[in-house]
Amino acid sequence: MRRTPPSGSHPATRPRIGAGTSSLTGALVLLALLTFYPAAFPSFITLGVTIVLFAAMASAWDVLGGWTGQLSLGHAVFVGIGAYTMALLVLRNGVAPWWGAMVGMGASVVVAAMWGGVTFRLRGPYFALASIAVAEMTRIVANNWARLTGGAEGISLPTLPLFLGLDLFSRRVEFYMALILLGLALAVAWWLQRSRFGYHLQAIREDEDAAMALGINPTREKVWAFLASAALTSLGGSLYGIFLGFFEPRGMFSLDLSVQLALMAYIGGAGTLFGPLIGAGLLVGGSEVLRIYFPGKSLFVYGVLIILVVLFAPDGLSTAVRRARRA
Amino acid sequence: MPEVLRTERLTRVFGGLVAVNEVEFAAEEGEIVGLIGPNGAGKTTFFNLVSGALRVSGGRIFFQGREITHAPAYRRAELGIGRTFQVMKPFPRLTVMENVLVGAFLRHPSRLAAERWAAEILKMMGLSEFAAASARSLTTAGRKRLEIARALALNPTLLLLDEVVAGLNPVEAEGTVELIRRIRDRGTTIIMVEHIMRVIMGLSDRIVVLTHGRKIAEGTPPQVASNPDVINAYLGTH
Amino acid sequence: MVQFVQIVVNGVFTGGVYAIIGIGLSLIFGVMRIVNFAHGVFLVVGMFTTLFFFERLHVDPFLVIPLVVLVGGLLGIVLERFLLEPIVRAPEHASILMTVGIGLVLSNLLLFAFGDAPQIINTRYSTSTWHLGPITFSTALTIAFVLTVVVIGGLALILERTDLGRSIRAAAQNADAAELQGINTRRVRSLVFGIGFALAALAGALLLPQLFAHPSIGPTYTLKAFVVTVLGGMGNVAGAIGGGLLLGVTESLGAAYVSSSYRDAFGLAAFLLVLLLRPAGLFGRSRT
Ligand SMILES: Nc1ncnc2c1ncn2[C@@H]1O[C@H](COP(=O)(O)OP(=O)(O)OP(=O)(O)O)[C@@H](O)[C@H]1O
Ligand SMILES: [Mg+2]
């Protein structure tokens, strides 16, 4: 038979299949290095917790937003559920925060199942719009249902029990908890990069009709991705609640928070192993520097960076760097 | 020969336009059936109905004797219907290998087995050397092959090919024709839509002609080629 | 009864301004297939432009309006030209992220420039009223409403009667076919984005005598604009008028007869239901 290879195509120098082991090594080395952060930069420990925690939550967002391509601008709902469930169970029922976090995770999964079941029939920008509506409604309810949530004045955490002998309000402890969560999120991303389920999600992201023609049930796979994403984000939310100590619906359920998670993942590289981590580092770090010069909370850096990324590195910085290295 | 596909009065309406109109169609195991007709005759719509990408407006579809009229597209793929898209739909940011792998997972849940099967398909399609290239870097000819490769990864009983030869240069076209024969020789039933008469006449065991959504003729290539209705359909109204 | 009529009248007047916001968003979506997440921020830019002219040049806010429209239009054209045109062929999430970014940059620039304190314009007519029988009309809202009607009418004339309007409608129907007919779709996109920005800025100027201006209120109005356009049907310009009036009246009635703290939630719930059940909007059919 005559072979007529399609001409004019240029094979990439490095196959993506089999790249798994090297990226796994990279992730492990990175996590190992990060364990030294509290000792190396004790005066920047709060910044460290913020970066690692947001990296974990952005990675969690990325399971749905990046790997599956369903742009959610409502993930703050799960941050809020995680934080509030944990805090309210501590305050009202004296339940230990780690059990509260588990309950919150369960609640988030239930919410995600209903939310996804109803809105995953929407495609493209309509799903994003619906996610904003769901999140804003949740915020309004949380704000007004004062008997449940404490309302707009917010709630503050009391003294927490020791966790395995550790003080949860210590920044060092919080750092390592966040690091464990980040490890978990990276493990999920690494698995998505190479598993059948991960390929199903990527196929749905790239072309839903073609994915269906290959035997993939998009709604079912999207719902699973949403559940995983919600569960991880919710854990991050519980930890974020402890980290803050005091919070209110306006911040926990805010559109800004949802947008931040999405932008971190996109700027670093959505649907990549390290993208969300890189994005979180840049954005949290960048905002921190700006805050020193311009007091007051500012998302200016987020705006500038996302514009530059969309224009010049549409697949995110980590992908752009990888390409530049290859060229 | 057992029947693989049968449609009864299959119909699809878009607004006021009847794109597929009460079409009775059947394909037997191991056949290559050519589906031809002028532009807008309803060929792609017919494929979309059979593969489940579109809902039917009326009529029924049977696959291996089982009714699939209302089964979702992914279920039909599981049952053994593979298809290509006329407007090609590669997964652009995945590599060529990964594109095929996605389909291979259907029959081979383990990663290793799926990769081995995908590699075999790539080799058969002459795409091995592009395995690691991203799908969007392929030329048109390459993408058309990728469409076939991905559908083949399902190990389909029935393969629907929508204009996979059109737009190729003569050498490439001949390669693809040869491939289609080999696929059929492995026992896969094929329905193919193609405008290039030389190709369709040479490959098909049987040809079905659609115009304005209606089946107007059916028969062996010589029968169809000499049918006055068919000649009219191509020359007259269009 | 009088109270009810009063509430409906207030709702209709506010709804007119919502319609202006929604029309711009719908026009942009119809022609460019972009969901503009910065739309509410454009409105805030209009508010602060008005404030700037009012406080620096002591011009009456309603006389400032042509200037505000001009500034908005120019900004829109420039933004489109340099930030949106380069990503015309990119996947749709690119334009969502881009407009989110534009919104963040603009609102933070306003924050740097005008500070964090809410501001309002105090004029004679901010608080003055006139009466028709037992019904009271706010003078500011009345002027705003008259202008709204004029602008909507003018826009309809442009769309229906002029070459530009025909180009816009052709591009909205099928950009590639319009291009083939010799329509410069690039120019149409720039103009449409300019018009959208100008309309949002105008709405800001019209609302300013009534509402506080603060750099961070943009997203609230972006959401309102989404609600208006989804109610009316994305890309359906005439539907946006109905959507605007509907939202205005619903909010007004909801705030009066139901709890006012849940007011926004009702609009969002309606938005979600329409999105799920009638994706083409309440009025008319989808073009696709
Ligand atoms: N999704 C759709 N919505 C509305 N009309 C459609 C749709 N898909 C196809 N049509 C119309 O149905 C008719 C049949 O189209 P179809 O694509 O099936 O033709 P075809 O035989 O494949 O033509 P070609 O040889 O050009 O590929 C055409 O008039 C087409 O415009
Ligand atoms: Mg066709």
Care to describe what's here?
The complex is a heterotrimer of chains A (327), B (238) and C (288). Chain A has helices at 20-34, 37-40, 45-67, 76-93, 97-119, 125-144, 146-149, 171-194, 196-206, 208-213, 218-244, 249-252, 255-268, 275-293, 300-312, 317-326; strands at residues 155-156, 246-247. Chain A is built from 16 helices and two strands. A two-stranded antiparallel sheet of chain A has the order 1-2. Chain A has a domain at 45-254. Chain B has 238 residues and is of the alpha/beta class. Helices cover 37% and strands 26% of the residues of chain B. Chain B has helices spanning 43-51, 73-79, 96-104, 111-124, 140-152, 170-185, 197-203, 221-225, 228-235, and strands at 3-14, 17-28, 32-36, 58-63, 66-67, 81-83, 158-162, 189-193, 206-211, 214-219. Chain B is globular and about 50 Å long. The mean pLDDT of chain B is 93. Chain C is built from eleven helices and two strands. In chain C, α1 (2-32) runs antiparallel to α8 (185-207), α3 (61-84) packs antiparallel against α8 (185-207) and α6 (163-173) crosses α8. The longest helix of chain C has 31 residues, at 2-32. Classes of the chains: A mainly alpha (327), B alpha/beta (238), C mainly alpha (288). Chain A binds chain C through residues 69, 71, 118-119, 121-122, 124-126, 128-130, 132-134, 136-137, 140-141, 143-144, 255, 259, 262-263, 266, 294, 296, 298-300, 302-307, 309-311, 314, and chain C through 35, 83, 86-87, 90, 92-94, 96-98, 100-106, 108-109, 111-112, 116, 219, 223, 226, 230, 259, 261-262, 264-265, 268-269, 271-272, 275-276, 279. Bound molecules: adenosine-5'-triphosphate and magnesium ion (MG). Adenosine-5'-triphosphate is lined by residues 14, 17, 19, 37, 39-45, 86 of chain B.
Write the layout of secondary structure elements.
The complex is a heterotrimer of chains A (327), B (238) and C (288).
Chain A: H1 20-34, H2 37-40, H3 45-67, H4 76-93, H5 97-119, H6 125-144, H7 146-149, E1 155-156, H8 171-194, H9 196-206, H10 208-213, H11 218-244, E2 246-247, H12 249-252, H13 255-268, H14 275-293, H15 300-312, H16 317-326
Antiparallel strand pairs in A: 1-2
Chain B: E1 3-14, E2 17-28, E3 32-36, H1 43-51, E4 58-63, E5 66-67, H2 73-79, E6 81-83, H3 96-104, H4 111-124, H5 140-152, E7 158-162, H6 170-185, E8 189-193, H7 197-203, E9 206-211, E10 214-219, H8 221-225, H9 228-235
Parallel strand pairs in B: 3-8, 3-9, 6-7, 7-8
Antiparallel strand pairs in B: 1-2, 1-4, 4-5, 9-10
Helix pairs in contact in B: 3-4, 3-5
Chain C: H1 2-32, H2 39-57, H3 61-84, H4 92-114, E1 129-132, E2 135-138, H5 139-161, H6 163-173, H7 175-180, H8 185-207, H9 218-232, H10 237-257, H11 263-277
Antiparallel strand pairs in C: 1-2
Helix pairs in contact in C: 1-5, 1-6, 1-8, 1-9, 1-10, 2-3, 2-4, 2-8, 2-9, 3-8, 5-6, 6-8, 9-10, 9-11, 10-11
The structure holds adenosine-5'-triphosphate and magnesium ion.
Adenosine-5'-triphosphate binds next to strand 2 and helix 1 of chain B.
Family (chain C): Belongs to the binding-protein-dependent transport system permease family. LivHM subfamily.
Keywords (chain C): Amino-acid transport, Cell membrane, Membrane, Transmembrane, Transmembrane helix, Transport
Main location (chain C): membrane
